[in-house]
Every structure is written in structure tokens, then in C-alpha cells.
Amino acid sequence: MERKGSDLRKFPVETSTVPISGLNSLRLSWKSASGGDWVAISAGLNWTEHDLTNSDSLMFWLYSVEGIQSSNLPGIFMEDINNVKTTKHLCSDYCDSLKPGAWTRIVIPMSLFLSAGDPVNFTKIKTVGFAQKLRGQSASYFIH
Questions:
Q1: pTM exceeds 0.90
Q2: pLDDT at residue 24, as a whole number
Q3: How far apart are CA 73 and CA 75, in angstroms?
Q4: Which of 57, 105, 112, 135 is the most buried (most CB within 10 A)?
Q5: How many distinct structural domains can be found in the chain?
């Protein structure tokens, strides 16, 4: 997995591809391996917690230069300030394959997370994460 920062714990910032809005996006590039269990998380400034109990959906945009089959997209999860994670859910259940060179809007109902029975405190969510789903896949996409 491509990482940046002095401690190699940060997403690279994508600046050459025009974002759907704002100034830039985050780049997630990976190659999954047998026995691997990579995760990549996105947090707000200073790991600020958010109350998501009244939210109806999680919405983000994905972009791939070469396109990605939806079955190759990673799983998605949330984590609270006590480091308790939700179940990993499939992004592929909520989008078609990513077309080359086009931003794709992904909308996942929050009820998927809220009703799963995980012992997560949804009033104090600090990160949204992406996780390895399949072995042997490799891809690169931008998250906005």
C-alpha cells in the first residue's frame, strides 16, 4: 500500500487529478496479498469525533484512472474514539464498477452500520476506514 509522511502513516494527497470539489483528494493504492489485512483510515483534523446517530447516509466519491470492477473495491468500516470498529461492509454492494477517468458517487445508508449490533459508540466516531477484502487484487483510486 502506498503511504506518505515521516512515519508512513498517511494517505498521499492527489494533486494532479482534478477533484470533484475542493483542492485535492486522497489516493489509495494497494496490492492485496494472501494473509494480508491492510486498512487505511481517514480522520478529521485532530481526530475530531462526530455524532453520526442522526445521519442517514455516508457519502463519498471515488475515482480510478484505469477503472475498477466493483468486486475489487475494499471493505469500509467506522471506528469510535475508543478504537472500537464496526463490521467491515462491502463498498461493492453500493456501487457499480468505477469507469476509467470518472468520479463515482457512493452512498451507503447509515442504517447498515447503526443496525449491525456492533458495540461502537456512534456518538463519537473518529474515522472512516477502508480494508482489504480480497487476496491478490491491486488497484489505485482517489477518495474525495
A1: no
A2: 81
A3: 7
A4: 112
A5: 1
